[in-house]
Amino acid sequence: MRPSTSVVCLFIASLFLSACGTDPGFVEPVAVPTGFVRMVNAIPDSVALSPAVDKRVQTEPVNFSDNSSTFNILPTLARPFDVLYADNGQTITLVSQSLTVDVSHEVTMVLAGTMASPRIFAIDNAPATFVSTDNFAELQLVHAANNYPAEVGFMLVSNADFSNATTVLLGQFSESLLLRPVATPDFEVIAVSTLPAAGAVPADADILWRSGSFELPALSRPMLVLLDYFGPGGKGVRAGLVGSTGLQFVPTENLPAAIRIANTTPDAGPIDIYLNDELFSSNPAYGVVGAYTETAITGVVSLKVTAAGDPATILLERAPTVNRGRFHTLDLSGIAASSTLAIAMFVDDNRAVPSRMVITGVNSAPNSTALDYYLVTPGTSVADSNAVSINNRLLEPTSFIVTPGSYDLVITEAGTKTVVVGPQPVTLANNAIYRFYVIDAVGGGLPASLVLADDFLTAP
After folding, report:
1. Final residue before a domain boundary, out of 297, 313, 347
2. Which residue range is the domain that position 111 belongs to?
3. 9 and 136, same domain (yes or no)
4. How many angstroms separate the CA atoms of 291 and 309, rounded?
5. CA angle 412, 328, 283 (to 5 degrees)
6. What number of helices (H) and strands (E) belong to the chain?
7. Are residues 269 and 206 in the same domain?
């Protein structure tokens, strides 16, 4: 594995058209002029959004803090560019704009603001003009954070030398800044509320986001977009690199992870959980989803489950991935007596959206079959109802959305109407995150029960 100071590589794809032939009948192919477009979704309260040209959707829907793949467009002609989303089975146009792309140019359409007041601005990039001997990169900075309307200062630091740092100010939703820093294996970008004096290190209180050290290759053209942030720690903003497979976050950025424990193994007794040989959770209660705990332990980690107070008695060892800037739920399930303990490290998206809810169910009952989930009108039998999610196996999370209202939550054996647990009355509203876990009785087996978490605990 490469050192953390060089784990980020920015790849730039070049397009070449070439042909050759000696056959007298060979016809040289004609190069077709093309423009290129991609879209960044920086609207913090958005659902997934789709870019469309001439009313034709061009890519898969793009979630907040992500970017689309690049798609081709006929250049030099004004084309209608629309941003679409789905709402109750209808396709809604969020914003429209005329778009003209020059030959071989790439335009990045950045969506910012809010769903009620969207903003869209185009960043036009001509083809690169590097020569092979150039030792610099072209870095573009974009301030698209809705919850930070003030100007943001950016500091570009090479080899931790603040005396030669490049500093700039960038306004919200403005055109991007294009800079040409010298390539280096030790490069850092720092976003600050107030720029320090020339050559000075920024005060901790002024740092909004810090990338940590990463490699900036020569001849690369990274675009760094400042966005709203909904993860643990931090100061409400985070920057990501626009990439060919979506927005990429710098693995060395100065953000913690957060993990909570869901102990759903019914017969293991008191346990402790270690991360990288450090005690992370001592004797988590069975059937309880704990509070999130921030941690600097990230990446692929060594996880051990031991008997409580006895680190030498290891019940389970695994190597899950923990991501900076994300919430996680570590669900420990299985049966200790049969040596079938298992864990799942779920990444929790805790960004609530005003126009929808998200309900996630997890089958954490190791003695159960696969399960079906029902949300039915209060007092209604599942006999004449359709499940909202079917065939849910152990430790497989499933998310779904329903119309706001009051329901009975009922869990059945998969493919049958045999009730395992429920009815559990619930009231569901938009702008909320609901999660539930189906667990065994203490010791294993029936009666199963439900553990409600997150906004289920604050619902009326």
Report:
1. 347
2. 35-125
3. yes
4. 21
5. 85
6. 0, 36
7. no
Among candidate residues 216, 241, 266, the one where a domain is terminated: 241
Q: How confident is the model at residue 30 (pLDDT cuts 50, 70, 90)?
A: low
Q: Is the pTM of this model over 0.85?
A: yes
CATH label of the domain that carries residue 314:
2.60.40.1120
195-202: long-range contacts at Cβ-Cβ below 8 A with a sequence spacing of 24 or more?
A: 195/153, 195/155, 195/167, 195/169, 198/167, 199/162, 199/163, 199/164, 199/165, 200/162, 201/162, 202/155
Q: Taking the C-alpha atoms of 86, 90, 95 and 98 in order, what is their torsion angle to the nearest 10 degrees?
A: 110
Instruction: Spell out the residues 6+ positions from residue 245 whose beta carbon is closer than 8 angstroms to its own.
Output: 69
Chain centre to alpha carbon of residue 457? 24
Which of 435, 426, 439, 448 lies closest to 328 in space, CA to CA?
Answer: 435
Residue owning tokens 């997150």: 454
For residues 272 and 278, give the distance between their C-alpha atoms in angstroms, rounded to a whole number: 10
pLDDT tens string 236-278? 999 999 998 999 999 999 999 999 999 999 999 999 999 999 9
Of 403, 412, 408, nearest to 426 (Cα)? Answer: 408
Alpha-carbon gap, residue 92 to 82, rounded angstroms: 10
Provide the CATH number for the domain around residue 210. Answer: 2.60.40.2890
DSSP 206-239: GEEEE--SEEE-TT---EEEEEE--SSSSSSEEE
Q: Could you give the number of structural domains in the chain? A: 4
